[in-house]
């Protein structure tokens, strides 16, 4: 990330969470594929295919992080431990967690494609990976949510809203905690600890380019009773991203 250790740590921490996280998304959505309408069933198949491809590419990316000298095992263990609590939970609860985390990936994807500053100075091939991933996250950003709507079609509006709202709060706490902790662990391996590590991360996340600050309105919007991912129509970013990829 153009020699910026804090931005590099943030992106690497995110990437290390993806292979296990996306496998969880796939399992959560697949649990409700049977009996889904034809259109939704086709969307679920495409969603699974895209997530499998994302996992494959981020496994390769994460291998590069390790080859660069970073010990990523503690970060991977954190992801494994975080997902361990989902075993044995009702499938609908895991699906509710998935739609919350898919909203996070959609929010990040929107910002990465909208503002080139986030990937300014990055290695071109790695920047292309992140833009490609962002395009596909926007493409399928409503699939898990539509699956949730179908799976909870017999729920009352209050029960459905309460489930997705509570799981968003839980998912946010765990996502922020573990990804921030992961970035700190990586920075420590660069010799950056204490206030320098925290100050640099908070500057990146909240000030410039400030991805956490920029996504906050969209995060709050998730709690609206009538929320749906496509109420923010950002398909133009898909077209822009695909044009960049073609070039």
TrEMBL record:
<dbReference type="Pfam" id="PF10118">
    <property type="entry name" value="Metal_hydrol"/>
</dbReference>
<dbReference type="InterPro" id="IPR016516">
    <property type="entry name" value="UCP07580"/>
</dbReference>
<protein>
    <recommendedName>
        <fullName>Metal-dependent hydrolase</fullName>
    </recommendedName>
</protein>
């Amino acid at each position: 990330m153009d020699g910026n250790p804090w931005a590099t740590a943030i992106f690497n921490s995110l990437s290390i969470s993806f292979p296990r996280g996306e496998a969880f998304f796939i399992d959560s959505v697949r649990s409700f594929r049977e009996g889904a309408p034809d259109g939704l069933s086709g969307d679920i198949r495409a969603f699974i295919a895209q997530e499998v491809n994302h996992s494959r590419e981020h496994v390769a990316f994460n291998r590069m992080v390790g080859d660069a000298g970073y010990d990523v095992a503690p970060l991977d263990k954190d992801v494994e431990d975080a997902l361990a609590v989902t075993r044995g939970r009702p499938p609908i609860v895991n699906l509710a967690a998935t739609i919350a985390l898919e909203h996070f990936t959609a929010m990040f994807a929107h910002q990465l494609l909208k503002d080139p500053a986030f990937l300014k100075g990055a290695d071109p091939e790695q920047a292309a990976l992140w833009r490609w991933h962002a395009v596909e996250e926007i493409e399928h950003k409503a699939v898990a949510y539509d699956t949730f709507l179908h799976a909870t079609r017999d729920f009352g509006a209050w029960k459905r809203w309460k489930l997705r709202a509570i799981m968003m709060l839980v998912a946010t706490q765990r996502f922020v905690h573990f990804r921030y902790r992961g970035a700190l662990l990586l920075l420590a391996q660069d010799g950056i600890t204490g206030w320098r590590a925290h100050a640099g991360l908070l500057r990146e996340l909240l000030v410039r380019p400030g991805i956490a600050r920029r996504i906050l309105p969209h995060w709050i919007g998730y709690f609206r009773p009538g929320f749906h991912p496509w109420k923010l129509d950002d398909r133009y970013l898909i077209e822009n991203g695909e044009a960049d990829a073609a070039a």
